[in-house]
Amino acid sequence: MARNVARNFSIKRLPGFATIAMLCFFVLYLPIATLVVYAFNAGTSIAIWEGLSLRWFASAWQNQQVIDASIRSLQIASVAAVIATACATLAALATTRTTPYRGLTFKYSMLNIPLLVPEIVTAVALLILFSRIKVWTGYSGLGYLIAAHSAFCVPFAYLPIRARLENMDLSLERAAADLYATPYKTFRYVTLPLLWPGILAGLMLAFVISLDDVVITEFVKSGGQDTLPTYMLGQLRRVVTPEMNAISTVFLMLSLAIVTVFFFISRNPQKDEP
Amino acid sequence: MHGIKKWFGNFQAVDDVSLEIRPNEFFTLLGPSGCGKTTLLRMIAGFEMPTEGSIRLDGTEIASLLPNQRPVNTVFQNYALFPHLTVAENIGFGLKMLGRPKAEIAATVAEMIKLVHLEGRGGDPVTQLSGGQQQRVALARALAPRPKVLLLDEPLSALDLKLRKSMQIELKRLQSETGITFVFVTHDQEEALTMSDRIAVMSHGKVRQVGEPWEIYDRPAERFVADFIGDTNFLDVDVVAIEGERARVRLASGAEIPATFPADIRPAGKVTIVIRPEHARAVSTGLSPATPQSVPLSGTVHDVVYLGTDTHFHVRLEDGTNFMVRQQNARSGPCGFAVGDPVGIELSDDVAQILRD
To answer: Locate the ABC transmembrane type-1 domain: which residues (chain A) (predicted)?
Structure first.
C-alpha cells in the first residue's frame, strides 16, 4: 500500500521540481567551490585566475595573527563545547527522565528560546553585562568569550541529546533497576553508554557553532582577542587577497571532517536500538 | 499482598486486592487489558508504589523498597534487553550490579546460557538475535541472580503462535527446574490454563476469583469469569433445595439437576447456572420417549460449526435461549445433526455451577 502511494505521488513528477532543486544546489555550492578554487590562485586577485599555487596557504601559515586567532578559536570552541554539552546533557536528562509536571514545557521552551532570540540582542546584552563585570573585577581574559560561547551553545548541544534520550526505551532503565542497579549504576552502565552518540553529536555541533560565531564574539571580545572569524572580518575591510580563501578552505575542511566523524559515530548500526 | 489499592489521579487501577502467592508456585494474573494486572505486577517489582496496602515477601515488607532493593526480577513485555551489551553481558548484568566476583558471574552466565539453549551465542550482540532468542535472553537475565520471585509481563505476546506454544512448555520447565516462584501476567486464557498452578482472574482492578485452572474453568464464581474463559452456556434456573455442597435447581423444562455453588454464598430463588458446551451431548429425540430426567433440555439445531476435531451445535431451546454443544468428532465422516433437526441435550454428571450475582 505505502509503496503504491509513494509511486503515485512521487515528488519527482512535479513539473519544475528537478530544475529548482538543481538551482538551489548551484546557489549553495557554486560560491563555495569558487572560493576553494581561488585559494589556489597564484595571483593576488580573488577574481582573476593566474595559475595554480599553494602560496596563499603558506602565507596564511606564516601569518602570526592567523595562527593566534586560530588557536584562540580552537581554545574557546573546545572549552565552550565541553561546558555546553555537560549542561545540555543534564538539562536533557532533567527534562526527559521525569514524570511530566506543570512548568515542564515552560522549562523546555526556556532552553530552546535562545535559538530564536536575535543574536545581536544577546550580543549587546552580554557586552553591557560583561563591561560591568570587567570594571568590578578587573579581569579581561578569554573567560568572557568562553562563558558567552558556552551559553549560546547549550541549546544546540541539547537538541541531539534530547532526541537520543526520547528515542531510548525507558524500560531499559527500569530493567537495570530491576536487576539491582542503583540509580547511579543505571546511569553509568545503561543510560550513559546508550546516550553517548547523542552526547558526541551535541559536542560536535556545539564545537562547530562556537568556531563559527561572529556576532557575539565581535561584541564580547576585548582588544587582541580576535578569533579566526572576527580576524577575517577585520581583514576583509582592508585588503582582500586569496589568503582569505585559503583560510576559509582550511576552515571548511575542518568542519567537513567533524561532520564526517559525527556521521560515522551516529550511524554505527550494530550498537543502535533494536 | 494485602489490601492493595492504587490510584492514578482519579482512576483506581487496583481496588483492594489481597492475594497470597505460595512459594515455588506458577501464579497467573489473568484479565482483559486495563484490569490492573500489570499495575499489580509493577507494584511487586517496585516500579509503582501502592497508594494503600502492604506487600510482604517471606514476611518482610517490601512495598516501600526501590526496585533494585527487592529480590524480584522481571521479564518485560518488550524484553528491554540492553542493546549495547552482548548476550552474556545482558545475562550477567544483575550479578555484576550485585558485585559478585567475575568467576562466579561467568559460571552462572554459562549455566544460564545452557538453560535457555543459547550455547555459542554468548558473545553476540543481542540486536542480532531473533524474537524468540531475545525472549530467552530476557528470561536468562532475570533468572541469573536467582530471584525469590520472577515476574513475567505478557512475555509471550510478541511471539508467533508456534513459538508461543513451545515457549509455554519451556517456561513451565524452567519454573520446575529452578524452583523459583513465577508470577505471570497475561490476557490469554489458554496460556493461563496451560501453565499455571493457580490463576487469579481480574477485572476492573478487582480479583474476581482465585483457583486452580480447573476450578476457574469448571467452577467459575461469577459471570465475568465464566464468560472470559472459554465458551459458556448460561441458563436461568430456580433453586429447589440445598443438599450439602450441591443445590438442586429446576430448569425451564421442569427437569431438576444438581449444581455446585461458590462456598461464600447460599443460593436461593432465581439464579444463573453455567454449563460448558463439552459437558453436554446432543441426542436424537425420535428413538426413545425422552423423559425430562434423562434428557433435561431439548430444542432445535439452528447452526452447525464444523471444526475438524469438534463440531459445535447451536441449539435453540424451547424457551428461546441458545445453548451450545461441543461434540468431539470421534468417527470420520459427516455426523450428527443438520440445521432444523429437533434434538435433546444430555448433560454429564455434576456439570452445572451456580454463579454469584
So the answer is: 70-262
Q: Which domain holds residue A156?
A: 63-267
Number of domains in chain A: 1
Domain B231-354: CATH superfamily is Nucleic acid-binding proteins (2.40.50.140)
B76, B84, B96: residue with CB nearest A175: B76
Interface A-B: count of C-beta contacts within 8 A: 76
Measured between CB atoms, does B130 come within 8 Å of chain A?
no
Please check whether residue B83 touches A, CB under 8 A. Answer: yes
Q: For residue B283, what pLDDT is reported?
A: 81
Grid look-up 543510560 returns A191
Select from B63, B99, B86, B67 the least CA-distant residue to B141. B86
Q: With a cut of 50, list the residues of chain A below it in pLDDT.
A: 1-2, 269-274
Yes or no, beta carbons of A190 and B127 under 8 Å apart: no
Which residue out of A180, A190, A195, A272 would a mutagenesis test of the B interface target, given it has the greatest number of B Cβ atoms within 10 Å?
A180
pLDDT of residue A1: 44
Do B145 and A174 count as a contact with CB atoms less than 8 A apart? no
Nearest chain B CA: its distance from A219 CA (Å): 45
Predicted local confidence at residue B157, as pLDDT: 79
The ranges of chain B with pLDDT < 70 are 1-13, 286-294, 335
Residue B94, chain A, CB below 8 Å: the answer is yes
